[in-house]
Amino acid sequence: MLYPVPAVMVTCQRPGEKANIITVAWAGTICSDPAMLSISVRSERYSHDIIEETGEFVVNLVTEKLAKPCDWCGVRSGRDYDKFKETGLTEYRSDYMDTPAIEESPVNIYCKVKKVEHLGSHDMFIAEVIGVTVADEYMDEKGRFDLAATNLITYSHGEYFALGKKVGKFGYSVKKKTNKKGKNKKRKK
To answer: CA-CA distances (angstroms) from residue 98 to 70, 81, 103, 124, 141?
Structure first.
């Protein structure tokens, strides 16, 4: 199995009913153009039918501060609890869709289901990203998302881990080194 995986809270809501939060560890990017992602949910979960019927959901990234509500939402059913009320999390309404996001989350990814793949223990919801909201506090002075500032968490074999230490960036392994004047340095052998 591929671990660690992101631990995210997915929000969903039927019209006229309370919003629900489900914790999902099987989520990921599947296409960049158009931007698409997938989440996998067991068919017996309360949120499964909500997502299948409404065709929409919001993926809310989880910080270290949100780890406890994330875990709680993963072990309690929305059939029995109002998860926003029980966790003290705040519904955030955007212009992207009626389904609320979680205001305390640093990033909210609004998704429209394009296809459902029935795979076995889980059904995979393949969705197009129709919008993203990011909390201002996680944007740097150049207007870029500062991942290290969020302390996002991952999940691996029943445990949560915080992220945050940058070890490189795309292409750094092949980037030519330059001297202070901007000219390429030559390595001595």
So the answer is: 22, 21, 14, 22, 31
Average pLDDT over the chain, rounded to an integer? 91
Flag whether the pTM goes above 0.85.
yes
> Which comes out higher in pLDDT, residue 151 or 84?
84
Question: Residue 187 pLDDT > 50, yes or no?
Answer: no
